[in-house]
Amino acid sequence: MQARAPGWIERVAPMLGVRGPQAGDLRLDRRRVYILPTRAGLLFGLALFTMLLTAINYGLALGYATTFLLVGVGLVSMLHTWRNLAGLTLRAGRAEPVHAGEIAELALLLHNGAGGERFAIELTVPGTAQPTRIDVAAGTEQLVSVALPTGRRGWQAVPRMKLATTWPLGLWCAWAWWHPQARVLVLPRLETPAAPFPESGHAGTERAGRGEDDVAAIRPFRAGDSPRRLAWKAMARTGGDALLVREFEGGSGGRLWLDWDALPPGLDVEARLSRLARWVVDAEAAGLDYGLALPSATLELAAGPAHRAACLEALALAPR
């Protein structure tokens, strides 16, 4: 879907002294909540002015009463619209790493510690087609997940967001800007279709798939061993608490080295990172022990979610 074009509120934001990224919680006090009439509110005011002129011209007592009653309704509506935002406390969570081009989900927490229930608060994130509408009950916290489009790999700062409301009558728009000091890690794109593993890893891959027939020995668990190589049957027979792993014939047990320098010289930097990222994901899924050698970092042979995350982070933060 096409992203929504900036409205007049976004265009006047630079004139209102919009602040930069802010760490920690943000409380929307009276200095952070702005309010102006909406288009419907301007039409409402024009109608009231016309009614007042008519009442003055014809001396209509009922016209005066109706006009001033509606003016009071408009002013009370302005107060309720402003109070629908004022007093909220905002807190940014974290977003899980995603690959470039995917949508990251950022967790946000809205705390309504004082005042009544808040209705129809719209949270707008740049790059998204539709705002997120939120209701927050009195004395509660509301967890909201917002979508963040991602572009290039590396750390991506969370953009400035806008909270706005026109509740209850739509005559006024109250809004506040929030730019949390948060960021999301964008991983390299995964190469599609995936290239075959490098030649150095073929033998290890075959051994990893043969099962128990190629087990050469059982040894105690060491740091860096893949959890997929745990010898459950052997541990059940011994009855002890010590972890045991299978040592495959030849000592490789399905080991794979992913070396930057071994890639074809015709690949550019981003293509190399994309291929290595794909190999990391596929090696982890295949239950292999794998290591990563980059010009800027080397990660030794290991396996598991933590090793996978470390390898992908190293690829995401590699120099451009």
Fold blueprint:
Blueprint lengths: L7 H5 L13 E2 L6 E4 L1 H20 L2 H23 L5 E7 L2 E2 L3 E10 L5 E7 L7 E5 L3 E10 L4 E4 L3 E5 L6 E7 L4 E5 L14 H7 L6 E6 L11 H7 L5 E5 L6 E5 L9 H17 L3 E5 L4 E5 L2 H12 L4
Parallel strand pairs: 4-12, 15-16
Antiparallel strand pairs: 1-3, 2-11, 3-5, 5-8, 6-7, 6-10, 9-12, 10-11, 13-14, 16-17
Helix pairs in contact: 2-3, 6-7
Question: How would you describe what is shown here?
Answer:
With 320 residues, this protein is of the alpha+beta class. The chain folds into two domains: 8-186, Immunoglobulins (Immunoglobulin-like); 199-316, no CATH class. 28% of the residues lie in helices and 29% in strands. It is built from seven helices and 17 strands. The chain has helices at residues 8-12, 39-58, 61-83, 202-208, 232-238, 269-285, 305-316, and strands at 26-27, 34-37, 89-95, 98-99, 103-112, 118-124, 132-136, 140-149, 154-157, 161-165, 172-178, 183-187, 215-220, 244-248, 255-259, 289-293, 298-302. The strands form five sheets. A five-stranded antiparallel β-sheet has the order 2-11-10-6-7. Strands 1-3-5-8 form a four-stranded antiparallel β-sheet, with no helix packed on it. Strands 4-12-9 form a three-stranded mixed β-sheet. A hairpin with a 6-residue loop joins strand 10 and strand 11. Helix 2 (39-58) runs antiparallel to helix 3 (61-83) and helix 6 (269-285) packs antiparallel against helix 7. The radius of gyration is 30 Å and the shape is elongated. The model is unreliable at 201-213 (pLDDT under 50).
